[in-house]
Amino acid sequence: MTQTTLPPLARPAAAKPEGRTPTSRTRSRRTADAITFVILVLGSAAMLAPLVWMLSTSLKTKAEVFALPPVWIPDAPQWDTYVRMWTEAPILSGFMNSLIVAGTVTVVGSFTSALAAFALAKLRLPYKNAIFIGLLSGLMVPYPTIMIPQFVMFSRLHWVDTLLPLIVPLLFGNIIMIFFLRQYLESVPNSMIEAAKIDGASYPQIFRIMILPMIRPAIAAQFILWFMTIWNDYLAPILYLNTPERQTLQVVIANLNVEFATQRDYPLIMAASFVALLPILIVFLIFQRQIIESVALTGTKG
Amino acid sequence: MARTATVETPPKAPGTAAASPAPAARTKRDILRLHRTEHRWAALFVAAPVLGYLLFTLYPIGFAVYASLTSWNGLGPMRFVGLENYVDLISDEYFHKALFNTFFYMIGIPIGLALSLLLALALNRRIPGRTAFRTIYYVPVISSLAAIAIVWQFAYNGDFGLVNQVLAWFGIQGPDWLQNTATVKPAIIIMAIWKGLGYSTLLYLAAIQSVPASLLEAAALDGANAFQRFRSIIMPMVRPVTFFLVVTNVIAGSQIFTEINIMTPTGGPEFSSASVVWYIVRKAFKYQQMGYATAMSIVLGILVLVITLIQFRLNRRNSFAID
Fold first, then answer.
1. What is the pTM of this model?
2. Each residue's pLDDT tens digit, B46-85
3. Interface residue of B41, B166, B244 to substitute, partner A, most A CBs within 10 Å
4. How far is A222 from chain B (nearest CA, A)?
5. Domain match, B211 and B306 both
6. A89-301: which CATH topology?
7. Of A1, B125, B152, B318, whose CB has the highest number of CB atoms within 10 Å?
8. How many angstroms separate the CA atoms of A132 and B46, rounded?
């Protein structure tokens, strides 16, 4: 009932019975498959190479980084880099700040988005569609167009160099999430909501007891995607955050890149960068099925 | 599910008595009253995003339009100068260059889409480890752009970077990619394609898998070869995805900033990598020319809007052509 149809991603290619020369057909197909496989392996190597190189560089000594011929695998992995970086750079505070921003925004913002999606999909409200289209039009406004006025607004509130300008505007909900949750709710029959009303349930109760459990999978998928976006955000944080201890992780590593490059401490830069993308990588590897399916859905619905 | 709701005491709707009369004898007045209650709750539920939209999108746009007509350092008084900032933009060579660079980067969009369509076709075959491939190609997509830009900046280093070390295997002496006016933009394009490939591949794959197998079978029986089936069936069927990807990539591409700022902190040799947003940020937050920077941001906003509308128009025509 609550399951919307996701595009079947792992469906095997349809086997086709073909009349003419079956043996030569299958042979040429097998050759083509083998070639495809080799190309895909080479492509995968190209996709992973920069990341593997990042990891390998982080374990090298400073001398090995600049050695010619290049050292691909460090002789003695310098695990110490992963220990000293926490004291030599504000990585721990960066971690915490990113977590505070991404956590607060996604938890509160998902709730406000879900409430709005419920109202826009299922409740009677004058000018409902106009409101929805108005909200959607906000998607066409590029952030750089509004970043200067926003900056001025927040600097008047003395919020510069705090996390608030990164958190507060997003607590009001995420239009993309509203769009998908609303879509998802279209499949819920109106009669169910009418029945709940007749049973005397109030609107907050209908939302909490009936709607929320139904749209939980959709919220979870959008929640993860949104969390990733905010964790990886860079432009807004560099505008607002000046004090190193108040910066989010992405800003911290970007500044490390400038600062430690002059000391040629590339192992530390690479170690910090690796740590910065590790949490999202882990989340992705755990939830990859859900993430990939909801992204595929985004594209086909868009 | 709804039954359990009655166990708890329903909180009162704002301004009205709790609304739970017997359904049988409802007068028109009752229904109107119930609708009013519903309107109130619905309005309350959408209030947050609407308020957010007014405060953090609509008001800033209005403010930006006004600020773009002033000379202003962000702190002091705003001096109204009319269209002066826009007139200055016309003769600002740096702005021209930033605009040119920003469009130049978009060369990567069709290349990336073509590659990912091929990849999706490859992943659509019956091949061992398809899921693993899909995951691997998707890893750059979820990776932090800042971290990725840092690694690629290092990888493009002329002497000990990964790219030139690999090229050396084939006897090619690579340039110092990011220090060279001729190679800095291609270098950034290559990185952007690498990062975005998995995303468009995924969307294409989903679209290809929704092509009815019977359609392809019928075409095969009629003697259409693989290329003909691709051109006449798969291409039109994935057209909506192509449209979606072009629109989103152009919108994102027009705002390219992070990789530029990290890989070429000074805007590249002779300003050859600076993008529009990079220049806006520099003018606004380094030189405090807020009015001028806002004028640029308005131009950028209009540009994005126009491109989006044109593409919607083109797409409408295309979909009529299919019908």
1. 0.87
2. 999 999 999 999 999 999 999 999 999 988 899 999 999 9
3. B41
4. 14
5. yes
6. MetI-like fold (1.10.3720)
7. B152
8. 9
